[in-house]
């Protein structure tokens, strides 16, 4: 995310039209300058200025525009015009606005300026979310604004639009990525910008909310990038509307309840526990509804506290959790590696009940996966109640409802279940909702956001939703887990590829974050590209076809890609079965750079679609795992550790055998070996352990070790993040 | 908070006027019924119904009302009329609305129904916060709505109203409370309801945001109670606008930075650290602004990374934190006792860098105290940067800015600094902002909320703000810490007392939560009352007078208080120097029950006010502590432990000697001994340890052990908290 490697001209108050034209003419003649982007308020972006620019250097196509159509903003301050509300949903990407920050123009090398994502984001004033809501057909009562730029949308909308036909459902997945990522989020945003702002078709992007951990750690934000962003990016990347904080609060209430309950059971008699759990209030004792549910699960069909036998009292009051079999972890939304493994309960007040446990990053909480899969408030509440926190000494699963905490969890999560409405740089609507891990969970945005969006766009509209990691992981889980939960059926898969990743799969040298890219990735190399296409790209296309869904390959173009490389990718992709394959320039051009992709997607939805799940849900757990390993990953077979086998037996015995499978596998290879690129074959997939998220509703086999708590590097991103206390502007987010 | 112990009549659709009148007449004659509260929509609250009720049984004074003035609501559903917006700011407390919930009327004992706070809260539909904002003179651009019922207010308002005179500034403090609490919050809310809705004077309540820990633990919510509440109480008690979550995120980012930095320093050479901390980007190395601040603090006046000597590099890169002297704790907003003392860093990835530490409840974070004391974004940012997280092996304090994290903290807190606007049951405005601990911090709501409110109410208006615990703690800190930070001067202190607490101070038996009250507290006992007044009440009045501020005693009346007891309290309070003393009935009557108090406060502000601080800030630390102990607590002297003495020396040496003092003492006695009631004398106050919150800006001596992490009981509040997934109604919050 280093910004655009093209020349920008900034405006200062003092610049006259003559001076700008003179600067443009110089750049025209400079052989080192390959592209010019005029970032000028429309008041000085006159046709004389636009015409001065040579068309072959015109990155944004400003010379093609009818200058009279440009919207004029308020430039009283000489800087950024607040045009978003005026030009939203209209072709606008030719007018790249940029706030001049008293930078000295440094004449270096190619006269290149870098523009950060937050600078681009801030240069565009978003239209009020109330206006956006009106444009997309929401009633005022269906919106809960959170400040000016974002709002929660009430689920009652689903009832109102019950009879409205769904729009087209597009999944954005990717080939196996390099560690740098290949731009699925930017493709998603560019695609809806193309649909809504350029092709005048209703569209919605459904994105995941990012964790704050990486924002302040290594990776930076996740609002897209360049001219394909969700704005304001700082709100997207920070607290948003508080959903992750609500998850943290709910998750940690469960954890506190687990340990406190173990302490109270360890220090009290059955009778004392019963007297406290079912107290006499004004001489009357009664069970709370949550306690009656527990009694029913225990097979005690009584509702009168005094009627329980001493043995029934004991079974009722003692969850009898085995401290060595607590699976519930605490969470924080911070990269705090020192919390990976800790010992709790060391204060004397806890009477020696110490135990080892750990914290995960908040988005790894099962509650996040539940938020993403729930299709109503009631469904979420039921899933929260079913969450298993550990096992009793008798080997029975203990749930959140057993702890008496499930009602409080639903209360804590009652606002989080409403998707958050935001907008792209070009004023098109976006839902941001949920963001479960893509390994120990399913890595997709929420079912509810997709459902609301599909109703809002209407029959001819498009909802573009994104699946984490490569298609072998995110897309497989999207189909087998998310679509099973939602009942929705996708119309087309957009498979994102980059020349860089394809070269890596074709045998190029190692790519790693922080290190300079080897020359193979900077210079043309058709042979590496072709080999990458015929291995990983082909395999990922085939995986989508297993599910019977048409595939459009979106090649996310980088400035170092040559025309020959781009053409080669598109040609081979089509040979491998893609409905179409098109280059995309959304990063530098916004929606205009993705118009061809949008057209290809629109064409693909008219193709035959024979969606099917990969496996029958009633198949034995091991068979479901084997099916994914062989058909999706290309493994010869699977091999379960003794621990994994024992867990499978336990889950079968507990009646969890017919849940879908959520593989926790590296995303850096189709296999379990991160360094095996392309399309590996001839391997046995080892299943180290098998775990379960019963509330979310899936079994997750562990293929290798998954880190659920990132760390901070020596110089975390936060070093550069700052706030101007006068302007309230944030710097350093990217 | 068990609700009103008076009879309520609920309306069902099927009730005719005749049936209601018949029921009223029966209650008139029932000697077991002492009070009747008609909770009926105005459509059926006819004058015939109102006149049927005997005046002596009329709790709400409905028989006094001119029935024609009652506002009629929309009763199409037969239940709750959404009248708030129509009747807000008008006398309305005679119309107690209550939603009928298909409860069977149980004819028990005294025909008493209990109404919970959340039922009262929910029965009143709040007016839209945008309307409230307009009523109090905010411009639309100064408001950031968070849903329909709450909004953040921008600090730019202070600039706009710069020339506006401040209103009257009223502090609500209390006598030394019983463990049950004596109702400062309800007095605060009742008082503003009286001012605005009954006396037609502009007023604002400034309250603290409660922690979620107690809400789900033992204590329940903190929105007031009965007919003196902030509504919707569930939003007040849950996530509100996310400020506590922001504090949690900021606090824990610092903690993660501390441990990660110690790990990186332990495992890297000076050169490696320097290369990572000041990386070469495109061949250019430069310090970030935050790093230049650190260099300056180190006395290294260089800005060119390559110009540092190896020794300077070493001093720059090594914070050299002493693991045994880290004072920064992590926080969660959950009662999680097992996190009181923990060991972190036990995963192999942390390379054996384990250490003992702990979590506090989020509101105990220094960042919360900073939020409460900051008077601008810039001030908050500077305080965040100054926070000391531990001590280096050379004995130097290490700050958040040294860690490079202070800019990111300001970013995380940029919205939290804006106070949240809500409303009382009677539609009058409330700011909810900050909620620091009242022992290790100063226990007052925010400086900024008070400042904004004082401008908004104007010269003749009233801002009522609340200080935690008894006046010896909360009020003393309000004057010496908060007023010093804000520059504001209070006009009057309202000192809340209850007959219950006065009897305890007069020698009554022990009062404890959960246990039934001894008969002394239920039956008239004038001697205990008198003794309590002449000890604790007198002393607390004298403390306020030390600061030169007039005192009005507010007696929060309970149903068991007799007229003779009430009269006696008021009489003795005035003898002891109170400007006035009045009984208050806000719990059962709302603002109407506090009109006399409001009149007394209005009268008191016209009295002479000679505000002065208790001590000169430049006095030595020990002298400041001694002054508070002797003059406020009544101690003979203080005695510092060797550890405390050493800390005082250290703080003096570091230049922290001229900070104000924030005593961490029990609130259950004027002394350090919780069981010494009344006004103890002849004791030496032991100072166990002395700590410092340098960012917040105070030194806090520890008088005894302070718990900064509550625990969960066997049956926490959460057992009864539930959400109806269809109506989205919350039950069980109180």
TrEMBL record, chains A, B:
User: What are its GO cellular component terms?
Assistant: cytosol
Q: What molecular function does GO assign, one term?
A: formate-tetrahydrofolate ligase activity
Q: Where are the transmembrane segments?
A: none
Keyword Cell cycle belongs to the record: no
The UniProt keywords, alphabetically, are: ATP-binding, Ligase, Nucleotide-binding, One-carbon metabolism
**Which InterPro entries does the UniProt record give?**
Aminoacid_DH-like_N_sf, Formate_THF_ligase, Formate_THF_ligase_CS, P-loop_NTPase, THF_DH/CycHdrlase_cat_dom
Pfam families for this protein: FTHFS, THF_DHG_CYH
Q: What is its EC number?
A: 6.3.4.3
Q: Which GO terms are recorded in the biological process aspect for this UniProt protein? A: carboxylic acid biosynthetic process; tetrahydrofolate interconversion
Top-rank taxon: Eukaryota
Its UniProt pathway annotation is: One-carbon metabolism; tetrahydrofolate interconversion
Q: Which residues form the Tetrahydrofolate dehydrogenase/cyclohydrolase catalytic domain?
A: 2-60
Specify the enzyme's EC class, one word: ligase
Q: How does this chain assemble?
A: Homodimer.
**Family according to the record:** In the C-terminal section; belongs to the formate--tetrahydrofolate ligase family.
HAMAP family the UniProt entry points to:
FTHFS
Q: What is this protein called?
A: formate--tetrahydrofolate ligase
What species is this protein from? Sphaeramia orbicularis
Q: What is the lineage of its organism?
A: Eukaryota, Metazoa, Chordata, Craniata, Vertebrata
């Amino acid at each position: 995310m280093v910004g655009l490697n093209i020349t920008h001209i900034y405006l200062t108050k003092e610049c006259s039209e003559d001076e700008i034209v003179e600067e443009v003419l110089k750049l025209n003649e400079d052989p080192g300058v390959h592209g010019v982007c005029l970032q000028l308020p429309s008041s000085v972006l006159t046709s004389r200025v636009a015409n001065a620019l040579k068309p072959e250097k015109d990155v944004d196509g400003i010379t093609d525009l009818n200058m009279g159509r440009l919207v004029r903003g308020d430039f009283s301050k000489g800087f950024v015009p607040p045009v978003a509300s005026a030009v939203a949903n209209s072709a606008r990407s030719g007018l790249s606005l940029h706030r001049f920050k008293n930078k000295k123009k440094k004449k270096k090398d190619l006269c290149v300026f870098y523009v950060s994502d937050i600078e681009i984001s801030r240069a565009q004033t978003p239209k009020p979310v109330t206006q956006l809501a009106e444009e997309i057909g929401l009633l005022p009562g269906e919106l809960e604004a959170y400040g000016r730029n974002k709002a929660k949308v009430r689920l009652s909308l689903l009832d109102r639009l019950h009879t409205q036909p769904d729009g087209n459902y597009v999944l954005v997945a990717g080939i196996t990525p390099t560690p740098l990522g290949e731009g699925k989020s930017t493709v998603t945003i560019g695609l809806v910008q193309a649909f809504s702002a350029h092709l005048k078709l209703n569209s919605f992007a459904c994105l995941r909310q990012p964790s704050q951990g990486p924002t302040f750690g290594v990776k930076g934000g996740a609002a897209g990038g360049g001219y394909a962003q969700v704005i304001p990016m700082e709100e997207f990347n920070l607290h948003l509307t508080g959903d992750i904080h609500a998850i943290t609060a709910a998750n940690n209430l469960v954890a506190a309840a687990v340990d406190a309950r173990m302490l109270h059971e360890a220090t009290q008699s059955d009778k004392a526990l019963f007297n406290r759990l079912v107290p006499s209030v004004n001489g009357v004792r009664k069970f709370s509804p949550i306690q009656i549910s527990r009694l029913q699960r225990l097979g005690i069909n009584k509702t009168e506290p005094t009627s329980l036998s001493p043995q029934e009292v004991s079974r009722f009051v003692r969850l009898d959790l085995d401290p060595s079999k607590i699976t519930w972890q605490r969470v924080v939304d911070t990269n705090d590696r020192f919390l990976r493994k800790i010992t709790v309960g060391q204060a004397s007040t806890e009477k020696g009940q110490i135990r080892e446990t750990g914290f995960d990053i908040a988005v790894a909480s099962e509650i996040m996966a539940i938020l993403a899969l729930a299709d109503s408030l009631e469904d979420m509440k039921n899933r929260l109640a079913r969450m298993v926190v550990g096992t009793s000494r008798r080997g029975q699963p203990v749930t959140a409802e057993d702890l008496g905490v499930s009602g409080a969890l639903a209360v804590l999560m009652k606002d989080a279940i409403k998707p958050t409405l935001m907008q792209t740089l070009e004023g098109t609507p976006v839902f941001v909702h949920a963001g479960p891990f893509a390994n120990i969970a399913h890595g997709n945005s929420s079912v509810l956001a997709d459902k609301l969006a599909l109703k809002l766009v209407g029959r001819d509209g498009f909802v573009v939703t994104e699946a984490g990691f490569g298609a072998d992981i995110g897309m497989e889980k999207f189909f087998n887990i998310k679509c099973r939960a939602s009942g929705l059926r996708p119309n087309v898969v957009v498979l994102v590829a980059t020349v860089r990743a394809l070269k890596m799969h074709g045998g190029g040298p190692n790519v790693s974050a922080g290190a300079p890219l080897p020359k193979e990735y900077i210079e043309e190399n058709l042979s590496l590209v072709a080999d990458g296409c015929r291995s990983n790209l082909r395999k990922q296309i085939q995986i989508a076809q297993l599910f019977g869904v048409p595939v459009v390959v979106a090649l996310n173009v980088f400035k170092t890609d040559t025309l020959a490389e781009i053409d080669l990718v598109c040609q081979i992709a089509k040979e491998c079965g893609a409905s179409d394959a098109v280059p995309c320039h959304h990063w530098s051009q916004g929606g205009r750079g993705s118009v061809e992709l949008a057209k290809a997607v629109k064409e693909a939805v008219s193709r035959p679609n024979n969606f099917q799940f990969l496996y029958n849900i009633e198949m034995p757990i091991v068979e479901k795992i084997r099916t994914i390993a062989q058909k999706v990953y290309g493994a010869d077979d699977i091999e379960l550790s003794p621990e994994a086998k024992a867990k499978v037996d336990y889950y079968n015995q507990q009646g969890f055998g017919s849940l879908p499978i959520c593989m926790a596998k590296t995303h850096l290879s189709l296999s379990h070996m991160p360094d095996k690129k392309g399309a590996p074959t001839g391997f046995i997939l080892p299943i180290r352990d098998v775990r379960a998220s019963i509330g979310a509703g899936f079994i997750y086999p562990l293929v290798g070790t998954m880190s659920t708590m990132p760390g901070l590097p020596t110089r975390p991103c936060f070093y550069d993040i700052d706030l101007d206390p006068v302007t309230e502007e944030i710097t350093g987010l990217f």
